[in-house]
Amino acid sequence: MPSRVGERKHAAASGGRRSRGGRLYVIDGIRLVAALMVAVHHYAGTWRVDQPGNAIWDRPVSEIMPTVFRFASYGWIGVEIFFVISGFVICMSCWGRTPRQFFVSRVIRLYPAYWFAVAFTTAVLIAVPGVWERLRLREVLLNLTMLQSGSAVPNVDGVYWTLWSELRFYLLFLVVVAMGLTYRRVVVFCCVWGAAAMLAPVSDLHLLELVANPDGAWYFIAGLALYLMHRFGQDLLLWGILAMAWLMGQLELGNRIEEVERVSGWRGSVVIFTAFLLFMVAVALGYTDRIRWKWLVTAGALTYPLYLIHYVAGTTLINRLRDTMDARLLVAVIIAGFLVLSWLVHRCVERPVSRLLKGGLDTSFARLRNAGNG
Asked: Is the C-alpha dihedral spanning 19, 30, 162, 258 positive or negative?
């Protein structure tokens, strides 16, 4: 009977064959939980909404609903959860794919809902002025590219900053996809990227910091290591990468609290992040494989549209409706409304536009291939 190490070596050499297979339903559920954490945080847990005379509630939210604020102040960790899940899912979905397939899959996944979100949020800002500043038309149009951060142009909605981190991750990982994904290559990628991310802040090289993305790199690396655990089984090297990601992550959590969030504690943030990573280890090692609830697929489909549309539009609605009902009920009603809208975006925008984009891109790449042979 072959040993586990021998099995791993064979799988790594052959590009990976030992997979538990099937959809990981529980990840869809985690993604929605993370999106809800972020939404509640933006509505009732940020430093901005806890200031006297703020544009959202007009008075500190900790006075309006102190218990909700106490929990919501940690909801920003949902973004770090997204990054870890992204590393896991991207590695899983790209295994055995070509760079062309990787590119097409990312375009049809990211852009349809994003284009709707830019248009929807801009329309809300036009219809309900006075809460958020509306960008100039040329800036809104550039936002449609999703590359506005690379041109120092503001985001239509502040939550889009995470997409810039995602895009840089995709660009880096495309190199490994082009080489062909194997256990060894992904491990090397994690180590090289991690080293670059550690060196970037002290290098005084803006380009290195831009590419290495030290603020988000280790969360994506954690997701990659977790997927390798899922596909090939655990080993000391993968645990070492995950431990390094945790150590670098806890530092980044503290930096974000000090520089941006300012409403939550480092210890609580680390406890939440650690619990999430341990749960992801359980997912990677197959302990949640029995969870196959079909509704989780729908829950996962709501996540991306909800994240894109909830912030500016939702806080604008709070500004207009804050005196009409209990604050906790208002937050719940707005989130429920955006969940419904997210489902409609998924069904009426994402699905049909993704099909059209995929057909058009496949045709375009086929023409490129044929032109090269002509």
From this structure: negative
